[in-house]
Structure formats: structure tokens, C-alpha cells
């Protein structure tokens, strides 16, 4: 019996079908059959006339659109789309393995404007890899001229903290290295500052600068979005099907905030008391809500891991509670923290200090609660609660204000590529940050599957590791200004920093690496990271922003010297 592999609700594809399959396919709900395999291609292949007769007898229509294996033309894709339009649905298209049918659908849909990542995801879910025609898909389903628009020794995808830090680190070691950064954005944001904007400490403008002012001198900026990878050709495909070739590639596009992953959220963000510090334009609204709330119900949420800055959902809650405490209205406000996780914080040494503030602000903790839906006008939210026995139930709550953190995934073009692991994150060795299967590709920042906290502090430590190891692969090592460590690979230890703003003026400075190992930057007599500290607040408020703008993004690696890989 044929196995139909659904691509959309109206189309499935399969390998060669048999006349005797038609009755079962009709019973399964199919109303049309499309043959994409020429008669006589295989010795055991029934002719289309037999298939058509059996399909008609079963009450289905049949169409014959034969395509030679490996020779799907642009006209074939157009014909396939036209046939699918006119035939009753759902339809089943088949060839020898189903690949030609999936290819025809992909190219046809690209011509209609469907996004490349959506096409790649749909075909991959059905078991078909469209990497071989990705350039045609990116080109609207048409065969492009095989031209290279640019070629560089090192290409970096992403002009955020990780991408620019990597470029700066490379340039500081090898000033004449040919580097290009690909990023479509005009503005670069200091995202760690948005929590402080939401707490009324920073103004939004202090967290934004033009991208052009930050790209290191001598690095070419390609202002475009990436559509796909072609690692077998050492090429990146841009929107519009432009091609950029590389000798080595660094992937650092960050992650995708999946606002649409919560029903009703996008329709109400920025109004009806619904806010998030995870967006530049919404962080000021958080502060407006906090200042305006004199009594009522405040809800703060945290989605499943991994997320950008795992402490940020709590930071918003603590700073809000502190403001309400200082203004004397806390007694009239109920605070609820709903987390999809099972614990308050993943490194146990910091939990006691955080619990002191949970109690101070009277916060009610709800673990294993994942936000699924928001109704802003009704001021209601719904959570999927996972019980101890694994069952789930729906929990509803009202709110006067709600701070939402969306679920987070890798960017679409990464998630559907051959560079990703099964979960969609870029697949790297956690120590060297080199791709596990493609040695001329590196990654850093939020996009990787390394089990570290996704923070700017992590990217600051990762950048020199990537720079050193990449240059080593080129037969070069780090320059004296960065403290050369010889010809060996260097290792990233998983370092991440999460300054937990538990009140205005005090921070619990969580610093840790792989496996939750504590990695403090300062001696305990100066800053005890497990306790709230005034000095840690000054570090966050006054020291870290200049370090970010003037050191990290300029290739000055204060307290970020990489160390050689040690044998396990």
C-alpha cells in the first residue's frame, strides 16, 4: 500500500502507486492523482493509463504531467501548479520516490510567493530535502544564472553582538583579512539594556546605534537577508537569489522571537496592559504600566528554554516589584510568575538570594505553566499546566498588566538547513564552536546548540574563541595584542553572565558555565555573585554598556582571553 506524505492539507506526495491502491486512496479522502513519472521509466512500473482507469473507477480524477528525473524545468513547475489549481482536492502526486513531485510543488509555490523557509520546512517534514533546488526556490521558482555576486575569505551572517564581536576579534588579530558581514538591519541594539528601560533606568535611545557606525573598519557590509545555505558550494544565498561565496563562514544571526506562538498575542502587544521587554518599542510601555499600576494583578511569564537571557523574565518582575514597594502600593498588587520551567533558576547557588526577593514582593510562583493564549481586551491569559503525572490542564487567569516573554527558536533559514540539529539550532562543537560536520563553518551567539546561557556576555567570550580557531584553520594564530596561545584550538567554557536586577541599586550577578559551574569574574570579597550587590548594580548600569560599545564590538577583549582545549 502506498504511503502518502502530506506537504499541505491539500497535497500529499508518494513513491510509485499501483492500480490496486486507488480504492484505498479514495477511501482515505483523496480526490485526484497526479503522475509525474514518464511511462516506461522502470521495468516494474504500471502505465499511466492503468492508473487513470483505476482512479476513475474509484471516483478520482487523474492528470499526467511526466518529468524526467533530475530535469524539472520551470515550465514543468508552472504546469504542476496549474493542474493542482484545477483538480479537486486533496490530491496525491507521485513519481518513483516522490522527490520530483515535491520539487515541482516547491518551485510552483515559490513562484506564487510562498516563503523559502516555509517551503523547505514543509518538504522536510514530508521527508524530502530540497537543498538541491534552494537557489531556484529563492529565485521565485525560476532557474537563475549561476553567478557569484561576491566572494570573501570570511563571511559572517549577522550584525548583532556576536557577529560584530567576531569580526572585530578577527580584524584585531589579522587586520588584512577579507571579511564581509551580511545583515539587513539599519539599527544595532544593546538588548541587555531593555530590562533597564522597562524598569525606568535607561532611556530607549541609549540602547540603539546605527549599524554602519559599528561595522569594523575594513569589513564589507552586505545589507541583505540570508535565504539559504549551500555548504557544498561554500555559498550563501541571499533574498533575490544573489550568491555570496566564502572560504570560511561564521553564522551569528541570533534567534527568532516567535510572537505568533502564543494565540492572540500579536494582536494585543503594546496595548490592553500587554507588554514585553524583549522588544525595543515595547520596553517603555512596560515602565508606563508599572508606574501606572496602583492596585490589581500583575502577571509575568517565562516560556520553555532555550531563550535569550534566561533571567530577563524575572528581572522585569523584580524591578516592577521594587517600584511598587518603594511607592507604597505593593500591598494592593498581586504578583504572579508563571514559568514553563520546573525551577526558579537553573543554577541552584543563586536561588536562595532570589527567593528572598520572591518573598519580599509577595510573588506567587507557578512552575510548569506555559502561556498559550492572551485576550488583551478581556484581560485574560491561559496556560498549559503540566502536572506531576505528565498530564496537562488549562489554567486561566486575569490580569491588569502582563509581561510576556515569547517562545524562541532559531531563524527560519537556519532551522530548515543542513547546518541545523534535529531541534533546529546550529550544530556546533560546544568547545571549539566549529560545526560538527562542516569544518569551515563556525557559529556563536544565540543560534548555536551549545548548552550555555544565551547572553551577550556569552558572545563576548565566544568571539575570541571563534576568531582564534578560524585563523588557526587558515594556518595563522592570534597576534600578540590578543595574547597568542600557539597553534592549538582554544575552548569556550560555556561562560554566561546574567545580572539579575533584584531591586533598583542591587544585582545578583550570576556567572556560570557548562554544567552550572560557577565562573565568577571577581573575587568574593569584591562581588559575591550569590548575594545581591550594590557594586554589581554599578557594573550593570555604568560599566557594562561602555564595555559593550567600546571594547566587545571593537575587538578589545578585556577578561575574555581564550584558553587552549584540554584533553578529556
From TrEMBL:
Full protein name: TIGR01244 family phosphatase
Q: Which InterPro entries match?
A: BLH_phosphatase-like, FAD/NAD-bd_sf, FAD/NAD-binding_dom, Prot-tyrosine_phosphatase-like, Sulphide_quinone_reductase
Source organism of this protein record: Paragemmobacter ruber
- Domain Beta-lactamase hydrolase-like protein phosphatase-like: from-to ranges: 7-111
All residue ranges annotated as the FAD/NAD(P)-binding domain in the record: 153-272
Pfam families with a match to the protein in the record: BLH_phosphatase, Pyr_redox_2
Amino acid at each position: 500500500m502506498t504511503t502518502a506524505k502530506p506537504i499541505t492539507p491539500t497535497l500529499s506526495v508518494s513513491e510509485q502507486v499501483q492500480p490496486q491502491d486507488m480504492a484505498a486512496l479514495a477511501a482515505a479522502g483523496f480526490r485526484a492523482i497526479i503522475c509525474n513519472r514518464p511511462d516506461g521509466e522502470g521495468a516494474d512500473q504500471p502505465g499511466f493509463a492503468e492508473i487513470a482507469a483505476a482512479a476513475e473507477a474509484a471516483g478520482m480524477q487523474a492528470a499526467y504531467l511526466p518529468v524526467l528525473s533530475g530535469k524539472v524545468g520551470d515550465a514543468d513547475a508552472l504546469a504542476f501548479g496549474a493542474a493542482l489549481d484545477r483538480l479537486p482536492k486533496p490530491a496525491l502526486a507521485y513519481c518513483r520516490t516522490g522527490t520530483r513531485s515535491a520539487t515541482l510543488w516547491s518551485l510552483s509555490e515559490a513562484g506564487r510567493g510562498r516563503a523559502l523557509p516555509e517551503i523547505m520546512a514543509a518538504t522536510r517534514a514530508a521527508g524530502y530535502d530540497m537543498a538541491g533546488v534552494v537557489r531556484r526556490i529563492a529565485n521565485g521558482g525560476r532557474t537563475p544564472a549561476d553567478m557569484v555576486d561576491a566572494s570573501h575569505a570570511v563571511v559572517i551572517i549577522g550584525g548583532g553582538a556576536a557577529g560584530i564581536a567576531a569580526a572585530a576579534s578577527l580584524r584585531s588579530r589579522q587586520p588584512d583579512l577579507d571579511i564581509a558581514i551580511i545583515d539587513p538591519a539599519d539599527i544595532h541594539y544593546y538588548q541587555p539594556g531593555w530590562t533597564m528601560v522597562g524598569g525606568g533606568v535607561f532611556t530607549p535611545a541609549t540602547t540603539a546605534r546605527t549599524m554602519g557606525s559599528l561595522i569594523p573598519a575594513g569589513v564589507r557590509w552586505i545589507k541583505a537577508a540570508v535565504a539559504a545555505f549551500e555548504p557544498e558550494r561554500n555559498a550563501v544565498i541571499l533574498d533575490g537569489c544573489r550568491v555570496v561565496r566564502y572560504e570560511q563562514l561564521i553564522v551569528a544571526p541570533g534567534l527568532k522571537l516567535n510572537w505568533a506562538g502564543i494565540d492572540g498575542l500579536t494582536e494585543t502587544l503594546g496595548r490592553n496592559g500587554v507588554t514585553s521587554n524583549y522588544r525595543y518599542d515595547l520596553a517603555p510601555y512596560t515602565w508606563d504600566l508599572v508606574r501606572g499600576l496602583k492596585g490589581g494583578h500583575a502577571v509575568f511569564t517565562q516560556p520553555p528554554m532555550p531563550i535569550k537571557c534566561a533571567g530577563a523574565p524575572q528581572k522585569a518582575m523584580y524591578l516592577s516589584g521594587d517600584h511598587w514597594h518603594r511607592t507604597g502600593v505593593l500591598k494592593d498588587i498581586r504578583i504572579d510568575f508563571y514559568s514553563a520551567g520546573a525551577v526558579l533558576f537553573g543554577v541552584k547557588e543563586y536561588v536562595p538570594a532570589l527567593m528572598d526577593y520572591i518573598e519580599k514582593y509577595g510573588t506567587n510562583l507557578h512552575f510548569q505553566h506555559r502561556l498559550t493564549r492572551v485576550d488583551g481586551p478581556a484581560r485574560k491569559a491561559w496556560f498549559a499546566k503540566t502536572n506531576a503525572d505528565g498530564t496537562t490542564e488549562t489554567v486561566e487567569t486575569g490580569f491588569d498588566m502582563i509581561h510576556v516573554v515569547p517562545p524562541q527558536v532559531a531563524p527560519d533559514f537556519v532551522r530548515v538547513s543542513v547546518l541545523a540539529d534535529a531541534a533546529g539550532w546550529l550544530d556546533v562543537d560546544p568547545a571549539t564552536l566549529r560545526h560538527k560536520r562542516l569544518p569551515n563553518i563556525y557559529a556563536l551567539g544565540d543560534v548555536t546548540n551549545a548548552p550555555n546561557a544565551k547572553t551577550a556576555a556569552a558572545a563576548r567570550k565566544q568571539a575570541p574563541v571563534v576568531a582564534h580557531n578560524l585563523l588557526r584553520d587558515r594556518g595563522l594564530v592570534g597576534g600578540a595584542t590578543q595574547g597568542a596561545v600557539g597553534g592549538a584550538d582554544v575552548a569556550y567554557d560555556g561562560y554566561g553572565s546574567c545580572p539579575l536586577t533584584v531591586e533598583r541599586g542591587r544585582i545578583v550577578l550570576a556567572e556560570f558555565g557548562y554544567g552550572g559551574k560557577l565562573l565568577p569574574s571577581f573575587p568574593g570579597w569584591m562581588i559575591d555573585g550569590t548575594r545581591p550587590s550594590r557594586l554589581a548594580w554599578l557594573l550593570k548600569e555604568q560599566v557594562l554598556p561602555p564595555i559593550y560599545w567600546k571594547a566587545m564590538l571593537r575587538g578589545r577583549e578585556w577578561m575574555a582571553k581564550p584558553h587552549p582545549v584540554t584533553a578529556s
